[in-house]
């Protein structure tokens, strides 16, 4: 079951990336472009309309708003364009992760934490 959940989350991430690409593609109709951009931004944003820590309602907005926006956008994006953008999104999500970039980010965070520790403990 955990494997199916991971696969579903991966597919949702690819679909959100496809919508982001569709929002930036000039061949996408304007209303689909606006809704696709909203859906992708909402999916990738760390800020929710209703925060997730609010019981039930916090997750309900993600389960209602996002699928409705995705469904509307997909219904109005030409099928050939959607297929092309899905392929591009899949290629982008399959890119290897940069260990060097992760190391740089971890080093920066470690430096910030060390500075804060030094600043507030001395």
UniProtKB/TrEMBL annotation:
It is found in: Endomembrane system. The keyword Membrane applies. Pfam families: DUF1232 (PF06803). Residues 32-68 form the DUF1232 domain. InterPro entries: DUF1232. It is a multi-pass membrane protein. This is Membrane protein. It comes from the Bacteria. The keyword Lipid biosynthesis does not apply. The chain crosses the membrane at residues 95-118. Keywords: Membrane, Transmembrane, Transmembrane helix. Its main location: membrane.
């Amino acid at each position: 079951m955990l494997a199916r959940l991971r696969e579903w989350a991966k597919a949702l991430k690819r679909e959100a990336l496809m919508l982001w690409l569709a929002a930036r593609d000039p061949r996408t109709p304007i209303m689909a472009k606006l809704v696709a951009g909203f859906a992708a931004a909402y999916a990738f944003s760390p800020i929710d309309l209703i925060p997730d820590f609010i019981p039930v309602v916090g997750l309900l907005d993600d389960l209602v708003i996002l699928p409705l926006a995705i469904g509307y956008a997909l219904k109005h994006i030409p099928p050939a364009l959607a297929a092309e953008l899905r392929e591009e999104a899949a290629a982008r999500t399959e890119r290897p992760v940069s260990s060097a970039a992760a190391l740089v980010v971890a080093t920066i965070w470690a430096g910030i934490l060390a500075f804060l520790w030094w600043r507030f403990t001395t």
